[in-house]
Amino acid sequence: MKNEPLANLTATLLLTAFLVVTLGFAIEGTFETRAQIASTFARQAQIQQAQLDLEELLRLQIDEENSLRGYVLTRDPFYVAQFRQAAAGYDAKEKTIQKILSEEHLSDPGQLLGAYGYLQSKWRDEVAHPLLRNPRRPLVEFDKRNKLFSDYETRTVASIRETLAGTDAGLARSTQIQLDRSSYMRAFWVLVFGLLAILFNAFRSRLNRELEHERTITEILQRAFRSESVPLPHCEVGSAYLSATSHLAVGGDVFDVFRLSANRALVLIADVSGKGVDAAVLTAFIKFMIRAIALRQSEPAAILSEFNSAFSKAVGNPYLFVSMFVGVLDTTTFRLEYGSAGHDCAYLRRRADVEQLAVTGPVLGVMEEPFYSKTIDLDPGDMLVLATDGLTEVRNRDGKPLLGGGAMQLIARGAAHAQQLADELAAQVRERGGSRVHDDLAILAIRMMDMESARA
Amino acid sequence: MRSFGIALLLLWTTATAIALADCKVHRGDHVVLYSTADDPSVLIWDSRARLRAYHAASFDEAQAMLPHAILVAPGTRAIVISCVAGYIESPLVAAPDDAIGITISSGPQRGVTRWALGSDVRSAPPDHR
Asked: What is the pLDDT of residues A379-397, one digit of tens each?
């Protein structure tokens, strides 16, 4: 049972890690597929460019032939210029295609293109240039040889065209396969991610239910053991209690006002280390044990000392300790005798001044140290304000804690009446924490009244 | 001996029938010559063996065969006198082509009988007959 929170935390972290890893794989896979498809598309674009260039090459070749025919028929030098322009264009285009084929490592079409270029060059040497030099040569012979070149070139180009189309189709198939694979992988990762998310959610819900259950028990216990404001003669008593918003932070803050006799009252506030049901149960232990001791012992130091001894024996947990303020107030003379076991959230407001009441001993449950008492004579109008560390440790949105100084300022400019002041302080804590209360808070305020006012 | 003769005749008839069945034109068909190469003129050859050799040969070998060919203008009409299906094979063309025996029926070579490539021969529309 003790290791359950740790196991829950480990399981939560493991599930979160799985989710993150799954998401990482899915994202990485998507980028990898994208890169592969981009690469295939780039190759396909190159091949398609080569196909277009090949058609352009054919057009330039026909231009060359037609220019030659035009010159032979008309003897117009314009056609010679046209012939040379087409020939230069043909050579440049052939180089461009050869470069693409070389980049794409297509050796067979590369060789065919080389053969095509060789034929064209041979055609120029054996047919075109002799005719340009002597256009009166018999055309029949020219036509036959031209036809021979044409047949070979057509067949060569058809073969290149076929190879390029095959490569293009292969790349398209490859893209399709990559897209299919990507879709399947994405579906797989979405499925895994979804299942993990469902698992995570179910686990979290179970954890929340358990925590809610514990919180409910804790709050019921706290409510059961918390003191209502007991009226004291010649005093005005106010109190406030805030439970932490987080399930895990609900813990053991306790306060008590208990009449020991007609004119003596026990004033108690304590903060138990630790949270949850265990801490809440301890608050009951503290409250009733202090009451019992206070009925026998009149001095706060003796009360703290006896409690310290009993607590150490009863609890036996070295990690559990309590900070506590115990006061015995004479309600007729307003003499307060108190002992503070490591509890520094105790203040006295006198007119406009607020002072912090000194700590008189170590926290309880840690060591067997002597405790001391202090005595203060209060005046009518003075206000004793006791709180737990939920007041001084509340942080604003910038993460800055209120601390003792801030608490004293709030008390100094707070309301005159005890209950109003307690409510104001609780409201300030809630507001400063941005509507979230990170730790429990108990406030007890006791205002000394003059006899006239008290009677009124 | 008579049975052997009949068997031979049957074998020849069957072979001829199979060859003719696969051809896209048949004996007596009127056709027009037109090449799908860049130059639409058509080379016609003095034997089907030479026609096949031309398409299988290297450029230099083919050039040496040119004296055995006549170049006819595109649109020249002819009549089919025989056809051998899939006879022509070329290292650069995937599917084999037919060798078609023709007699030219128009133009300067009218009356000449030669061999042409199947893909250079098209059935003539009715007004060309």
From this structure: 999 999 999 988 988 888 7
Query: pTM value?
Result: 0.51
Cβ-contact A340, A388 below 8 angstroms: no
Q: Residue B41: helix, strand or coil by DSSP?
A: coil
Domain ranges of chain B: 2-128
Judge whether A380 and A448 are in contact, CB under 8 Å. Answer: yes
In the numeric block, the tokens 């061999």 are attached to B115
Burial of A222 (0-12, 13-18, 19+ CB in 10 A): buried
Q: Which residues of A touch B62 (CB under 8 A)?
A: 148, 152
Look up residue A138 and give its two tokens.
């018999």
**pLDDT of B43 strictly over 50:** yes
pLDDT per position as a tens digit, A173-224 = 988 888 888 888 888 888 888 888 888 888 888 888 888 887 777 777 766 6
Minimal Cβ distance to A147: which of B71, B90, B94: B71
A122 touches chain B (CB under 8 A): yes
Listed residue (A370, A373, A348) closest to A359, CA to CA: A373
Q: Going along A249-321, which residue ranges are E strands?
A: 251-259, 264-275
Contacts with B90 from chain A: Cβ below 8 Å:
155
Q: Assign residue A403 a region (left: φ > 0; alpha: ψ between -120 and 50; beta: otherwise).
A: left
Beta pairing partners, A395: A401
What are the phi and psi torsion angles at A306 (to 5°)? Answer: -65, -40
CA–CA distance, A303 with A256 (Å, rounded to integer): 14
Q: How far is CA A164 from CA A46, A55, A62, A87, B91, in A?
A: 10, 12, 21, 24, 17
User: Angle at which helices A139-225 and A107-123 pack, to 10 degrees?
Assistant: 150
CA distances (Å), origin B106, targets A432, B72, B109: 109, 10, 7
Answer whether A182's CB lies under 8 Å from A219's CB.
no
Strand partners, B100: B83, B116
Q: Is A436 exposed, middle or buried (0-12, 13-18, 19+ CB in 10 A)?
A: exposed
Instruction: Tell me the nearest-neighbour CA distance from B78 into chain A, angstroms.
Output: 20
A contact test, residue of B35, B71, B76, B114 with most A CBs within 10 A: B71
B112: left (phi over 0), alpha (psi -120 to 50) or beta: beta
Phi first, then psi, for residue A221 (nearest 5°) are -65, -45
